[in-house]
Design a protein that fits this description.
Number of helices: 9
Strand content: 5-15%
Shape: globular
Number of strands: 3
Order of helices and strands: HHHHHHEEEHHH
CATH architecture of the largest domain: 3-Layer(bab) Sandwich
Distance between the termini: 18 Å
Structural class: mainly alpha
CATH class of the largest domain: Alpha Beta
CATH superfamily of the largest domain: Iron/manganese superoxide dismutase, C-terminal domain
Bound molecules: manganese (III) ion
CATH topology of the largest domain: minor pseudopilin epsh fold
């Protein structure tokens, strides 16, 4: 694991945990303003055949970059919010000035969600820790039932959004969905918690390879889950 990846995970876990449990938030996650595009932790073609290289290149270099550019452009007009840290802005989203609120929701969310998504995918096979396995068994019965429930939730997202596996304050696992670039760290989220897994179900995440077959994408992606990372996040 390179340093930037370890730092992202570490600060995410600390910050997300702090937010979830109501402790003082850790402001630093990802880069600070002005935000920059994090490098993918693998090559564009590393996730073939389940996610094709062209999709990864466009998704990372165009879509993710556009969220960052628009986030920076929005924050340029609100200097007093530039150094608050994106997770604090998520927590306080309901109180933000309305122009900034929309930008943080859409582009701040778009930046954080994609940075998270790249980290929980990997071309290398791994296994969940015993602790995460036990939580999956307790919450869903077994791994196949978790996959089926995530697929069902992913198919239920009308339009664009995300399906998440989150850890609640009681450390129980729960599947939740969000629309657009909302996420479970936002203060006004219906279901709040610490993300353990995320699946992007926007069409741009799968359309080149799977076209309208979102269900096939939701099945294929389990070959790419970085369980090591998910286990660290669950801790
Ligand atoms: Mn996307």
């Amino acid at each position: 694991m390179d340093n930037s990846r370890r730092d992202f995970i570490k600060t995410s876990v600390l910050a997300a945990g702090a937010l979830t449990f109501g402790l003082p938030g850790n402001a630093s996650v990802l880069s600070e303003y002005p935000y920059s595009l994090p490098a993918l932790p693998y090559s564009f073609n590393a996730l073939e055949p389940h996610i094709d290289a062209m999709t990864m290149e466009i998704h990372h270099d165009k879509h993710h970059k556009a969220y960052i550019d628009k986030l920076n452009a929005a924050l340029e007009k609100f200097p007093e919010y530039q150094n608050k840290g994106i997770l604090n802005l998520f927590t306080q989203i309901a109180e933000l000035p309305s122009d900034l609120k929309t930008a943080i929701r859409n582009h701040g969310g778009g930046n954080w969600n994609h940075s998270f998504f790249w980290q929980i995918l990997s071309p290398e096979k791994s296994e969940p820790s015993q602790q995460l396995k036990d939580a999956i068994t307790a919450g869903f019965g077994d791994m196949d039932k978790l996959k089926a429930a995530m697929a069902k939730a992913g198919l239920s997202v009308f339009g664009s959004g995300w399906v998440w596996l989150i850890s609640t304050e009681k450390k129980e696992l729960k599947i939740v969905t969000t629309s657009n670039q909302n996420n479970p760290l936002m203060g006004d989220a219906t279901d709040k918690g610490t993300p353990v897994l995320a699946i992007d179900v926007w069409e741009h995440a799968y359309y080149l390879k799977y076209q309208n077959k979102r269900a096939d994408y939701l099945e294929g992606i389990w070959n790419l889950i970085n369980w090591k990372q998910a286990s660290e996040l669950y801790l």
